[in-house]
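Re: that chain you flagged

S.,

Sorry for the slow reply, it's been a week of failed gels. I finally had a moment to sit down with the sequence you sent. For the record, here it is as I used it:
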Amino acid sequence: MSRYLLISRSAEYETRLRRLLRSKLEALPGEYLAFGPDETLAQLRGSPRVALLGPLLNFAESKAIASALQERHPGIGLIVVREQRSDLEDWVDGMAIHAVLSPEATDQTTVDLISRLEEWLVSHGKLTPVREEPEEEQSQAEPDADVTGLGEFGLGAIDDSIALESTASEGDSDAEDEPADTLILPAPLDEHVRTEVIAVVAPKGGQGKTTTAINLATGLAEVAPNSVVLVDADVQFGDIAHALNLDPHYSLADVASAGDDEMALKALFSHHEDDFFVVPAPPSPELADDIDARALGSMLRNLSTMFRYVVVDTTPGLGEHALAALENATDGVFVTNMTVPSLRALRKEFELLLDLDILPSNRHIVMNFMDKSSGLLQKDAEEIMGAKVDVVVPRSGAVVFASNQGVPVIHHDVRDPAAKALRELVQRIEPSAAPSRRRIHRKTRTP
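Prediction finished late last night. Pasting the structure tokens below so you have them in one place:
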């Protein structure tokens, strides 16, 4: 029988808690909250002893469901799962919760906090003891140094309440010396600024589409720092996070399910050191089933109200997610190479998009991996495609080298011919994006 309840919009966090708590956990999707707390709790099969609310629930939802849970299940323990941000005091003062837990907390800290809260509720007569099976017995560990009273945060004490402040691993002696993660927010967007959604598409895989999208976002961020977001909409096998050496806590699955709650969305983006944000693809292909094309389109429209530039790396071909990106795009960057099958496939893409009337008004054709030994000239390629090439990117080992180091090539070596060509693409969209030597990657190159 389940003892713990999770109400969340994060599929990744639910998967993690199921792994930690197994059959003890019952999870309800946060989408039920759209029908109200009563309808949400009508889905419950058991009587939870501790409930975790979040991530990705807003204040009104959390408050309403917390009140309904306390009314139906007196004595229940309530944990809000969210980052320690400046508005935490409003959450603590606005609802009777017992703890605040960071979604980035370690597995051990998460399990310890839930267990200790349940033990406290039993010791204070709010819950009756539960007979543990022998394999479930837990040793009585000393209180985790990462868990402190809410009053210690200067938020005003809640009777015997506890909260998580740090996500350091248990026993990490250096944790206290490490600075806390800083939540970097998108730059404020002037209401009169024209925003652009740029879909980067290719008829086949292996055309260099992802590299193009990464360097496009990097270049645009030079003129619009922290007002560019790169979306990895290759929902099954996107690898932008790996290409940029990012270790994201949230993915496209979380952002797409967050709705239009701008505050919730801002907490889900990963930030790159080159001053742009990233929405990475889901960490496993099965999570792609939770992201339909309509949700992706709605998400892109929301992002276009928050960012000056939204760059979307799509799934190869013209699947439903790529079409959703193009339907919401102001610009389309079409990437191909010097092979006849790819050129013919791109021509078919143009014909289909014209028939569907969703070819973006601003079109940019990138001819990637240009090599004189390919047997084709540029004019031959244009004749096969039925369109003029806008940017020619020569084959370059620097692109592979930069990618292996997790660095955009336009910041790795501004003098490389491929970097110059990708800069040309950036300047087609933003002419003021001139190369800057101050951002060149400075690590020593290996021979």
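What I noticed first: The first strand starts at residue 4 and ends at 8.

Talk soon,
D.
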